[in-house]
Fold this sequence. Notes:
This protein has 185 residues and is α+β, with helices and mostly antiparallel strands. Helix content is 18%, strand content 44%. It contains 4 helices and 11 strands; from the N terminus they run E-E-E-E-E-E-E-H-E-E-E-E-H-H-H.
Amino acid sequence: MPKQAEKVFSGRIFDVYHWQQEMFDGSQATFEMIKRQDTVNILAIRDDRIVVVRDEQPGRGAIWSLPGGRHDDESETELEAAKREMREETGLSFREWKLVECTEPIKATNKIEWLLYLFVATEFTDETEQKLDAGEKIQIEYLSYEEFLEISSGSDGGNLRDFHRIVKDAGSIDELKVLPDLLQS
């Protein structure tokens, strides 16, 4: 986002920014970009199974997904957001957390500023009740490595398709547990 960009609209998820840009012929044009809160997803492993959810929201049927969501506010770190989303959506807590990937989901357009953080959570510690938003129905599922690959490679794989490559490249549940931590590289 250019430093001279001004926010012209504040939404619940997206903010819109405008700025003047000099064109090659010396004229000026208004450019536009949207920004959204960064999001987190958690590849959690409990009892050698991957924790996934069937997430249903108003206006959209249930889809396969990893637990996750967006930051509640700018003061929340990515790790705090990941732990909070995991507890809210699944009620599960884990001792070990690693940031294994940070991507720009819509990098090709250069018109949306948004980062997606992927954490691996291991060493399950406890389980409490889910704390779902009014617009969420979430069913927790535990998939084997093979089941995850099968579902995430199919047309009904939902958001799991976004993480198929990482799980497949790891080669096994044990290898997922030891993926390198980006923060310690």
